Amino acid sequence: MTQADEGTLPSTAGVIEKIVLKNFMCHDHLEVALGPQLNFIIGNNGSGKSAILTGLSVGLGSKASNTNRGKSLQNLIKRGRTTSRVTITLANVGHEAYMPELYGNKVTVERVLKKEGVAGYFLKAENGKTVSTKKADLDNMLHKYGIAIDNPMAFLSQDNARGFITSSSDAQKYKFYEIGSRIFQNKMDLVETGSNNREMFSKVATLAAAVEDAEKKRSKARKTYEQFKEGKNLKKERLLVEAKMRWAEVAKFREKRAEILQKDTDLDEDITHIDQQTAQLDQQLAEFDTNKEAAAQAAQTAEEAEVLFRSQCEGVREQTAEAKTELIKIQDTIKDAESNTKALAQEIAKQERLLKVEQKRIDAINGGSLEEMQRRLDAAESELREVTDAGRAAQEQLNEIDETQSAAVRAKGDAKKKAEEEIGRLKETKRHMLSTQTDPLNAFGPKIHQVMRAIRDTRFRNKPIGPLGLHVSVKDEYKDFSDIFSTVLTKTLESFLVTNSDDEKTLNAILRRHNMRSGVIVRRDDRFDYLSGMARSHRTFVDALDFDNEYVKLTMIDLNNIEKFVISKDRDRAKEILQGPDRNVMSVFSLFNHHSGQRSSINDTGAFRIDPVHYLSEFKMNRSAGLSLSAVKRLELEITAAVEAAKTANDDYERLTNQIRHEKEILASKDRDSRKRQKPLKERIYELKNKLSENADMAAIESLTESIQDLQNQTTIQRTDLADLQGELAKAQASYQALGESLKQSQSQLLRLRAESDSKRLDLAEFDQMKALILGQRAHYEKSKQKRVDKKAQYQEFVVRLAEEIVTLEAVARETMPAEQCPLMTGDTEQTLGARLNQIIQVIESLENRLGGSFEAAQQRLTECEARYENLKTSFDDFHSIHKRVDDDVMFRTLDLKETIENWTNTINQSFKLSLHQRGFDGELVFDHKKQLLQMHVSKDGSSNFRAVDSLSGGEKSFTQIALLLAIWQPMRAKIRGLDEFDVFMDSVNRKMAMKMMLLTLRKQQKSQTIFITPQDIADVEGINGPDVHIHRIADPKRVNNSENH
């Protein structure tokens, strides 16, 4: 069961579960089990019902006089018996339990009454073991449970109940109210405390006068004592100064000895240092021998590597020579091929000359027109080829333009589009910058205002902080780095900060509902010292940013390490900073251009790297401190430059498209002209070929033509071979060049190995030189050590002589006064002490001439006066402090009582009204605390026309009194309440209504247990059969030996 459940259920700790009466009043043995909330004990008159309430009061420690059953507890023992026993069992479960580890879940209180002797208490645990027999422990337990056994309004016996129900005067009602609420007792306590405090004030005044008189007598005694003391002190001082002079001489010799000893110690340190240096040199010599062997091995290894690589170079050199030979061979073959090609060309020229001669002969036979036709045919075919080639070239150029120029057009178009987009981005940045100036929340999106309203209207354990960017701004001198700060920290600046997981869930729900993706950081407001891990030698993000919330600042340091992020306007110094002595530098951020910056760092492998930081358009920090003119001006310059760039890109795009269009039109015109000229040329060629086929026998010409064709074919083959040879030559040249480069590199590597080998040999030579140098240093240290050893012997001899003189001087000084009784102070020298001694002697002689009397008597008088003053002063301070505390306590208790009376008055009045409303009545209680009167005004019809209670019927008046009782019970918060025969003066109608009202009211007070005693039947009372009501019917007892009290 949770604590919340316990607050809505009937109380368990302190509830009476059972009462057993043995030989008590009229009962031999009576056992009654009680419920935790409402209990009704019914029975006929004389059945002993009231004995139960009396037993509860007596069993829990009440006096006999409080029960209205006699003045002595012996009167409660049943007649004929010598002892009586009341046993009460209380529940002890829950957070209000009393020492549950000792008593368990139940506490049993047993009180034994005796005719002879003293009554006793027994407090028993759940297991029946007696834990205590002290009344004080019982009182502590009842106080813990909240049981007020002596409050007459908590346990109303027959007489008290009758007196309360039938009370008619306003003064009687007020008296019941004061007694029940214990206000009367509090008032009496305050009156008694005030009276005691006034008596204490009188004592304080008397003590003050005595203290003043004692102070005067003490001052007079001190003055006399000081006059006697001055002379005696001077004699003591004279002896002291004389002793100090002797000890000063001892100190001088001691200082001299200490000085020599310090020099001796310094020599020891020098010798130790020399020994350490010598040991280090010996170690170096040993290391030199070892390192010399390693150097010799390294030199040998380097020399072997040089020899090995030299042989490899010889191999490369041989391969290069072979490649050169092959190259020369191919070049010779090419020369032969070129010579053959030239011979074939000469033969072709010879055959063509013969062909011309034969052609002339045939032309002569045919009238000389064949050559002319052939010339015209060749010219026509040549022109056709030119026209066709021109058309083909124009078409190819058109295709090339479509393939190549289109890419250039797209590139220019992309540049134009990019420039236009850049203009839009810059204008949006300017608009965003100006909007965040008027309202910083605009930087976090259009829905941020709705989110902030939702956060403000939602209940959190601790209100979230955020967005964090609202609490961060850039200092004026670092405005140039604003875009870097905003871009690097953007995720954190957009986030909100909460201190617990419950607030995180609530905030995430709000963000999801408004479709915002801001992060939520969960971090307690723990403060820590970040300065030890902060980069000190350079400006960091922490130095450049202003935080209006220390919690936000520490969060960003904790999450982003901004105390380790350094800023630098000089990009070239980033590597120097990172490799510098400050190990706390994690990254260096620098400016690059208007669109980006750069981040420099050292990666895990120790390599230096640079990463770009592309600026975001949205600025996520607080601009409420004002935009710098340079930032706005810079943005406007960027917009102007972007407009110019866009204009240039557009001009380039237009110029290129116009140029391409013009070139395509020219080429298309050439293609059309080519197709137009090809047709007549083809017709003319066809006609000329037909005429040539009709001429004389061409056998000789054909033979010569075939011979020329054969020679041309040979030439073609020769040229093909020549081309192949040229390819082989190119490969051979490439191979030769590669081998030459390899040879060059090998020679370079050989030179490096040779230099390394030479260096190793030089290192080996340097070892011998360094060893000689170290041996020289070692000899120097040995000589220096011997000098100090000789000096140390001289010092030790001098120290022995000083020690002997010091012993003699100490003996003389000690006879005068031990050193601990005359410590030397700063400035005590033989000169100053001698001057003081002469001065003391003169003063002593003067005092001895004018003083007389007894120093001891003056001292005794002063001691007595001081003791009396201190005693009186202590008493005065104690009484004055107590008086002040009591005075303050009375004032605060008076104010507290006044406030308590006011609160209780309001509570009782409200409860009284609610009880009357259950019957349809209305009313009010009017308290006159000054006159100590309590008036009840009641309206039967619920109107505001109140009238006095005396005008009501007897039953209505009793009902109203019961309402008053319930109202007084309301603020009492008593754990257990009892009411005996409250309904004897009520008619059946008012009794039922009163009973219903009490059930409804007391059911709400689940922390209290109530016991009603009535002789009337309650079966017809509405709500009496509820599970929280326990009814106990008491049978009539046998009255053979009844006690005197029934």
Automatic annotation (TrEMBL):
It comes from Babjeviella inositovora NRRL Y-12698. Keywords: ATP-binding, Chromosome, Coiled coil, DNA damage, DNA recombination, DNA repair, Nucleotide-binding, Nucleus. Residues 204-231, 285-436, 632-666, 722-756 form a coiled coil. This is RecF/RecN/SMC N-terminal domain-containing protein. Its main location: nucleus. One of its GO terms (molecular function) is single-stranded DNA binding. GO terms for cellular component: nucleus; site of double-strand break; Smc5-Smc6 complex. One of its GO terms (biological process) is chromosome segregation. Residues 16-1014 form the RecF/RecN/SMC N-terminal domain.
